[in-house]
Design brief:
Signal peptide: 1-20
Oligomer: single chain
Radius of gyration: 24 Å
Strand content: 35-45%
Largest sheet: 5 strands, mixed
Keywords: Disulfide bond, Immunoglobulin domain, Signal
Number of strands: 9
Protein name: Ig-like domain-containing protein
Pfam families: Ig_3
Strand order of the largest sheet: 2-9-8-4-5
Number of helices: 2
Organism: Cryptolaemus montrouzieri
Length: 158
């Protein structure tokens, strides 16, 4: 009898542990948007290593702060500076979709020397719809580099 009770106890304990693990595994959700980090490191094949670690490849040298909280009705500005030979092209994305200039969103670019470019994204005035993940991507024929900026709004009480 005691053996049955001990066995039953262990069975209940094992079931509880496996269900707890399953619950934790299911609660983790993968984000729809991947936060862009610099692409560096070693790669399995030499072609990839040569592409991503090319000295002439596009590299972002300066970027805005990752986590940004803005006040509704005020201006949001992000900066991205990249270098490469040939000069990279900077493209802006919001929540994974490419964004373009419109009435309240402007993208300014400055060419610096023969191998640098500076791009600035400005939103004025900022609304609740402007919250999200922004990304600048610098791309030339040798490599691609990207940085992400997460934004959320706050309400200012005067």
């Amino acid at each position: 009898m005691k053996l049955c009770i001990v066995c039953l106890f262990f069975i209940i304990l094992i079931v509880d542990i496996t269900q707890a693990r399953r619950g934790r595994a299911r609660s983790r959700t993968k984000s729809k948007f991947q936060i862009g980090l610099p692409i560096t490191g070693k790669y399995r094949d030499p072609e990839s290593d040569q592409y991503y670690n090319n000295n002439n490849g596009a590299k972002i040298t300066l970027a805005s702060h990752f986590d940004f909280e803005y006040v509704l009705g005020h201006k949001i500005a992000f900066v991205c500076v990249a270098r490469g030979n040939p000069r990279p092209i900077i493209t802006w994305y919001k929540d994974g979709s490419e964004i373009f200039t419109h009435m309240y969103l402007n993208i300014h670019e400055w060419r610096i020397g023969t191998d640098k470019i500076k791009s600035k994204l400005e939103i004025d005035p900022a609304t609740q719809m402007d919250a999200g993940v922004y990304e600048c991507t610098a791309d030339n024929m040798y490599s691609l580099d990207r940085r992400s900026f997460k934004t959320d709004f706050s309400i200012a009480f005067d």
